[in-house]
Amino acid sequence: MALIVYWYDFICFGIVLAAIAASLWFILRRERGCIDVEDTAHNSLLLSRSESESLGPARLWTSCWRRLHPGWLLLTRSISFLSMAALLAWDVLKWTFMLVMIYFAMGIMASLYGCLEHSKKPTLGTGEDAVVNNVGDYELRQRLGVYGCFMERIFQTGAGAVVLTDVVFWLVIVPFISNTHLGLNMLMICMHTANAGFLILDTLLNSLRFPWFRIGYFVLWSCLYIVFQWIIHACGLTWWPYPFLELDRPWAPMWYLCMAIAHIPCYGVYAAIVKAKNSCFPSLFPNAFR
């Protein structure tokens, strides 16, 4: 056992358990399930004109820009995935990086399907309404609904996680933590720049929603990571990826509490980006933005 438990560590355990319980309560109270892909206005603080048009499963591959071929979204997602895969090949232990890559991989599959459907109806504009109305097979729509459920939640979780990890990296690790602990190098800098850059680029093009209550998935993801670290340290690992996660320091509960609270503004930052896109772009580009 490499993980020695002190009395103040139980405060840390309590903070994480409370975060898990609060997240589950929040999700179960507001979530309506994977099959029902149409959210009502009260479920989102980010309701926009594109959401009110109810694209349904087509929002997975349809751009928020009118007359923009789904292939452009496929191209950006493919470039993002391949670039991040090249960086990840050098460091396979990046938790958040892999989550964002999973989103781009799912986005590529959705965009490929969207391009296929778009090619079948070339005369019906951008194809989003045609796709929604012509997916007549009920079972196919159900499968697309479940797929979209997971894809959107991975997108929403990854967005919050990217903001949190980048804030910690640039505002805590780089200025205050010795390079010898984490081995800071150009690769780490590129990874903590690419994940946010690629995800924001995709956000500026996609039609995915960003309801506030799904911060619960983001909190659960972080709690899962912390529990994973506890388990592997209990099995003998002594190195912590983030020094403030160490449990053998009296101020550990303060760090855990601060990180728990930090999830709210971090998710809020990305929610603000999506809201700004849906609020400003229709005025700036009334004929191009849906």
What does it look like?
The chain is an all-alpha fold. The chain has one domain. Helix content is 67%, strand content 0%. Helix 3 runs antiparallel to helix 4, helix 4 runs antiparallel to helix 6 and helix 6 packs across helix 9. The radius of gyration is 21 Å and the shape is elongated. The N and C termini lie far apart (57 Å). The relative contact order is 0.18. Keywords: Membrane, Transmembrane, Transmembrane helix. One of its GO terms (cellular component) is membrane.
- Total number of helical segments? 10
What sequence of helices (H) and strands (E) makes up the elements?
Answer: HHHHHHHHHH
Q: What is the 3D form?
A: elongated
Based on helices, strands and strand pairing, what is the structural class? Answer: mainly alpha
Helix content range? 55-70%
Tally of discrete structural domains: 1
Cα end-to-end separation: 57 Å
Mean of pLDDT: 82
Number of strands: 0
Spatial extent as radius of gyration: 21 Å
Percentage of residues in strands = under 5%
Low-confidence residue ranges: 35-53, 123-132
Largest sheet: none
Transmembrane segments: 6-28, 72-90, 96-116, 159-178, 184-205, 217-242, 254-273
Keywords: Membrane, Transmembrane, Transmembrane helix
Question: What are its keywords?
Answer:
single chain, 290 residues, 10 helices, elongated
Short description:
Keywords: Membrane, Transmembrane, Transmembrane helix. The chain crosses the membrane at residues 6-28, 72-90, 96-116, 159-178, 184-205, 217-242, 254-273. The chain has 290 residues and is mainly alpha-helical.
